[in-house]
Amino acid sequence: MIKDASGTTVEIRPKAGSTVEGAINHLITAARAEAGASPGQNIPAMMAGQAKTFNVGIIGYGLSAKVFHIPFIQVTPTLRLHSILQRSPKSGDSAPEDHPEAKHFTSLDEFLADSSLDVVVLSTPPGTHFSFAQQALAAGKHVFVEKPFVPTVREAEELIKQSREAGRLICVYQNRRWDSDFLTVQQLLANSGNKDKSQSGSSAVVDADIGRVVEFNTYFERYRPDKPTNWKGTLPMSQGGGVLYDLGSHLLDQVYVLFGLPGSVYAKFSVQRDGMLVDATTATAEEMEPDSIVVTLYYPSRGGLTVRASATVHSAETRQPRFWIRGTKGSYYKTGLDTQEPQLRSGMKVGDAQFGLEDDDSCAARLVTVADDGKLEERALPNITPPQTYARFYELFARALASGKEEDVPVPATQAADVLRIIEAAKESATTGREVPLAR
């Protein structure tokens, strides 16, 4: 029994003598007709109540667009790759050749003038984010912007104000909130000292308790003796370039998710490749353009918790450190970066069964806990499974688009602005040599 367009209940009977398969096909055909669905429409989408599909356009066609955005747009049911703006397509690097199903533009004005476009993804150098986001919001589009959001808190606040006035959403692509090791750490800290393990916020429970965290170290160390030649190595900090905005924004965002804004910040910047330290006697942080940073955050309201975030270029290690956490009842030490980026770079598909699963040979986590008798017990602690992956990020963003609510955005611009407050305090500290209070 189904209802027709007028709401009248209609009984659907398969033809006499038909097979079970034929009867099922008959019912599906009738259901499609009743719902007004096209012959090729996806059945789950039809059953979901004709959920709106949002047309997504991307500005920029570099690594970020190809690896971190397009693959996830394509697997998110309510998103559609609608258009790509690439200034100068060329053989071997051509959005029109790679994605003939999409619309293609070389002009920003023409791209934004397309009334069928709902969402703009900014996959461009950070110095362009503020201007492009302003124009996209003015054109009535939602904005999904790569990190770093913008270079300054002032610009972030202006965009937040504009988005609210326009009734549009801004989401910042802090994808490493969905790294498997970070999600494991997040659950470990939620469980530690928490009797109600069901409140840890994950589908898989980390069976461990390291007590109150007293020291949290997070690393993005590399052995990169040669300076990058792309914008990450040439764009000044005043335009959102450099290690503080690139890798530092990931580290500090994860710390912010776990602990919120710190009470104060102390930072040291250096140019390890040249053997130079940034301080008030040499130059400002912007003039020095450091390649390595160590940022210390203090949390008086959390029992004196100290957090250190480090990103350097002369770490000659076969297993780079990632997290080192010390608590009153144990510790956690993890090596190796999340595997999603290298997997995507190598061509692995988002739907592959191995996507998001780390290689134990290169990534390992050691957990030490204090037993009831006071002895220390050590064991391996695997990441939570199954991995949520960056696909979860896009799924949550799509849900926010459907609801239209700022509170549903997985990484709202207000949070990105708070991370920029930490970044600006770190720049001030590195230049002056002083600990900088962080007041809102």
TrEMBL record:
Residues 54-172 form the Gfo/Idh/MocA-like oxidoreductase N-terminal domain. Keywords: Oxidoreductase. Coiled coil: none annotated. Gene3D superfamilies: Dihydrodipicolinate Reductase, domain 2 (3.30.360.10), NAD(P)-binding Rossmann-like Domain (3.40.50.720). SUPFAM superfamilies: Glyceraldehyde-3-phosphate dehydrogenase-like, C-terminal domain, NAD(P)-binding Rossmann-fold domains. Pfam families: GFO_IDH_MocA (PF01408), GFO_IDH_MocA_C (PF02894). GO terms for molecular function: nucleotide binding; oxidoreductase activity. Residues 208-438 form the Gfo/Idh/MocA-like oxidoreductase C-terminal domain. Belongs to the Gfo/Idh/MocA family. PANTHER family: CONSERVED EXPRESSED OXIDOREDUCTASE (EUROFUNG) (PTHR43708), CONSERVED EXPRESSED OXIDOREDUCTASE (EUROFUNG)-RELATED (PTHR43708:SF5). This is Oxidoreductase. It comes from Microdochium trichocladiopsis. The lineage of its organism: Eukaryota, Fungi, Dikarya, Ascomycota, Pezizomycotina.
